[in-house]
């Protein structure tokens, strides 16, 4: 699942797994391609197959290139496409779909685990990595699992419960204000700025995997969203781009927003206006797989069961008959792996996904009733009487607190030095309005707003520019 970049340089075909290696070509002078740079700042990843450098692209999905040496010409042939699959016109019975989904998923996991391999798992408090652990073949246990996050975070508490049920080993990589930062600086260089500085979460686990030699093959829960049919309604594509993908939040100017949206909309049409196709051929390749790119640099192989061909073929054929809120995934998990989901909560909700028992149903109704009554009383300046005003402290749900960590050293010094540097390179590629917006966002973040994601995109851009053109920050120093 590595990347392959290509370009035609001095009448020769050049291909490489690392964009930065082009800098070693004789007399090669890279030029930043403004359009994908805008995409990165507006969506957190690039649209289609373009790269940071002009005239350098990724090899398209399922495509073979042929270079004619005498003629110095390139031809391409896509050997497979989604149009080879026939979508269902009527949905199968839900029980049948759940059964098929479960068997395909188990096969997807077990076909990626072989006897004698040192396979491990990055385990969170979510549903997807837990499902992979539950589906692993008996011969693979006990395995080493690792979870990253803040001390006492919900992810580790839940992950430890899951690992205990499987009889596996549970390790924890603590993230805090002091240790999350500097390994990410050199990772920008190592991965060709494939993702935003703030999204290299996997690095915390990766460091411990390497130092403690926990495993050399990682099963990754990437793309469980598709299995949950959690894509989007194609008719709502503008809202998806602006809200869900964050363009409305990240855009630095109206022109920036409009140009990125136009490119994204055109690409959606190239994907036959199919949510499934654009999610698989685009978002998963350009955004979701950043962890895989990070791990490859460190020599850790990553396997992703959720993108198994048979599994995705099945989901694609279903996508035209089931709505975006279809509920096949959770029933499948409860049916195939009940001991992992009946009582252990999901980090996102704090509750198990199994059908609620009578007691939980009553408790939920009471909470809903109290909320409704409290709202009515508040309109008249009254409050709902509390039997016990002291509330039990809940552990921190989020595994990281980037917003606060960015306001503290050492992160504060790095962001401040990079973004406010009078010799910074990023203003050369942006309008004065956009440059001003970046600096305003940084100050607003320091004043309490959470603009960490947006500010980190600008930081990533500047680090990459300095690494490419000034040979700085390549080692994290």
TrEMBL record:
Keywords of this entry: Amino-acid biosynthesis, Asparagine biosynthesis
Domain spans labelled Asparagine synthetase: 102-189
Gene3D superfamilies attached to this UniProt entry: HUPs
Catalytic activity: L-aspartate + L-glutamine + ATP + H2O = L-asparagine + L-glutamate + AMP + diphosphate + H(+)
One Pfam match: Asn_synthase
Top-rank EC class of the record's enzyme: ligase
Pathway(s) annotated for this protein in UniProt: Amino-acid biosynthesis; L-asparagine biosynthesis; L-asparagine from L-aspartate (L-Gln route): step 1/1
Single GO molecular function: asparagine synthase (glutamine-hydrolyzing) activity
EC code: 6.3.5.4
Residues in coiled coil: none
GO biological process: asparagine biosynthetic process
InterPro entries: Asn_synthase, ASN_synthetase/amidase, Rossmann-like_a/b/a_fold
PANTHER family in alphabetical order: ASPARAGINE SYNTHETASE (PTHR43284:SF1), ASPARAGINE SYNTHETASE (GLUTAMINE-HYDROLYZING) (PTHR43284)
Protein's UniProt name: asparagine synthase (glutamine-hydrolyzing)
């Amino acid at each position: 699942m590595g990347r392959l970049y290509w370009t035609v340089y001095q009448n020769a075909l050049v291909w490489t797994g690392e964009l930065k290696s082009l800098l070693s070509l004789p007399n090669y002078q890279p030029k930043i391609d403004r359009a994908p740079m805008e995409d990165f700042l507006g969506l957190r990843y690039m649209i289609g197959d373009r790269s940071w450098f002009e005239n350098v692209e990724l090899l398209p999905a399922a495509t073979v290139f042929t270079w004619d040496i005498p003629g110095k010409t390139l031809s391409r042939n896509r050997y497979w496409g989604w149009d080879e699959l026939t979508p269902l016109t009527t949905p199968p019975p839900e029980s049948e779909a759940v059964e098929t989904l479960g068997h395909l998923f188990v096969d997807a996991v077990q076909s990626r685990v072989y006897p004698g391999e040192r396979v491990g798992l990055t385990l969170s408090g979510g549903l997807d990595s837990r499902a992979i652990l539950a589906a692993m073949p008996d011969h693979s246990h006990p395995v080493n699992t690792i979870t990253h996050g803040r001390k006492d975070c919900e992810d580790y508490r839940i992950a430890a419960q899951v690992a205990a049920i499987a009889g596996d080993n549970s390790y924890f990589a603590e993230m805090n204000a002091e240790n999350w930062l500097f390994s990410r600086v050199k990772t920008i260089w190592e991965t060709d700025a494939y993702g935003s500085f703030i999204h290299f979460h996997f690095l915390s686990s990766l460091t411990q995997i390497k130092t403690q030699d926990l495993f050399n093959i990682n099963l990754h829960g990437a793309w469980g969203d598709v299995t949950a049919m959690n894509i989007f309604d194609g008719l709502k594509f503008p809202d998806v781009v602006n809200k869900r993908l964050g363009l409305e939040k990240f855009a630095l100017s109206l022109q920036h927003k409009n140009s990125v949206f136009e490119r994204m909309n055109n690409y959606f049409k190239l994907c036959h206006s199919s949510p499934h196709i654009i999610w698989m051929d685009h978002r998963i390749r350009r955004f979701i797989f950043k962890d895989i790119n990070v791990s490859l640099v460190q020599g850790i192989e990553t396997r992703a069961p959720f993108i198994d061909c048979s599994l995705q073929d099945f989901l694609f054929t279903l996508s035209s008959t089931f709505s975006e809120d279809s509920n096949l995934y959770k029933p499948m998990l409860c049916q195939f792996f009940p001991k992992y989901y009946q009582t252990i909560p999901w980090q996102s909700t704090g509750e198990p996904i199994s059908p609620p028992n009578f007691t939980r149903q009553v408790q939920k109704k009471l909470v809903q009733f109290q909320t409704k009554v409290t709202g009515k009383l508040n309109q008249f300046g009254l409050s709902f009487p509390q039997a016990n005003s002291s509330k039990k402290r809940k552990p921190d749900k989020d595994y990281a607190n980037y917003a606060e960590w960015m306001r503290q050293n050492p992160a504060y010094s790095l962001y401040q030095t990079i973004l406010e540097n009078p010799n910074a390179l990023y203003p050369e590629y942006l309008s004065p309005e956009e440059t001003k917006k970046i600096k305003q966002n940084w100050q607003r973040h320091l004043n309490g707003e959470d603009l960490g994601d947006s500010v980190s995109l600008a930081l990533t851009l500047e680090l990459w520019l300095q690494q490419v053109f000034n040979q700085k920050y390549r080692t994290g120093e």
